[in-house]
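Thanks for the sequence, V.! I ran DUF397 domain-containing protein right away. Repeating your input here for the record:
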Amino acid sequence: MSTHGRFIAAEWVKSSYSQGTGGECVEFSRTFTTAGVVPVRDSKRSEGPALSFPLTGWASFVSAVRREDFSA
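Predicted structure:
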């Protein structure tokens, strides 16, 4: 999906987990949560594509990150 199409009106928020060092910069938008989706994109490529996740899937992912369920 492109941010120039469906998500053109999105208000983007940079993840608090993004370090700002150019490596893991992720943005998401709460604009479409009423439609049940959360768009996510690479903040270094704001004109690039965005992935769209179901709201429940995104909530599960964020919960897992907060619990540190992922290993490096």
